Amino acid sequence: MNFSSKLLEEAVAEFAKLPGVGQKTALRLVLHLLNRDVEEVQKFSSAVSRLRNEIQFCQTCHNISDTAICEICASPRRDHGLICVVEDTRDVMAIENTNQYNGVYHVLGGLISPMDGIGPSDLQVDSLVERLKENNIKEIIFALSATMEGDTTIFYLHKRLKQFNINISTIARGIAFGGELEYVDEITLGRSIVTRVPYENSLS
Description:
The chain is an alpha/beta fold. The protein contains nine helices and seven strands. The chain folds into two domains: 49 residues, Orthogonal Bundle (Helicase, Ruva Protein, domain 3); 126 residues, Dna Topoisomerase Vi A Subunit, Chain: A, domain 2 (3-Layer(aba) Sandwich). The strands form two sheets. It has a five-stranded mixed sheet. The termini are far apart. This is Recombination protein RecR. One of its GO terms (molecular function) is DNA binding.
């Protein structure tokens, strides 16, 4: 692609680094910004810069947050004895949108995937174990994607957590195998949370 401006070319190259964005889409986005008011573009730039520089991860659950402890973990209205274990922030948002869950979360930051070189030590597993040691937790819900990586992660976590005297459940499999949690419709996901089953039962 030939560019009439080096600045334009550099901007397109940066946008094209975003997932799912090719050069043509990147060019369309850059040209769109060029047609906006300077103040609007500066606001956009400032929002992205502040996101990268000021965003935090909750010290308790590792969810993305504006503060050291996220709003969910800090809320006295949540059931802190119920922890839903998820892969990342997108899954927290998906479950929150169902309005069917009132516990707290634990964000692993990924799934065990030997093919990608991701092992348990790369995830927030030890901090989950510490939460169970230090708090009065009555139930853990595994809400991970119905994929090989998700099942591998759940199997590993179950082995690590079964020493504790708590209920361990997993969301009901109204979700097709291979399905990513963030793409499941809210009704199906909500029902899967409500109709969760003991983890041992899900193995049969």
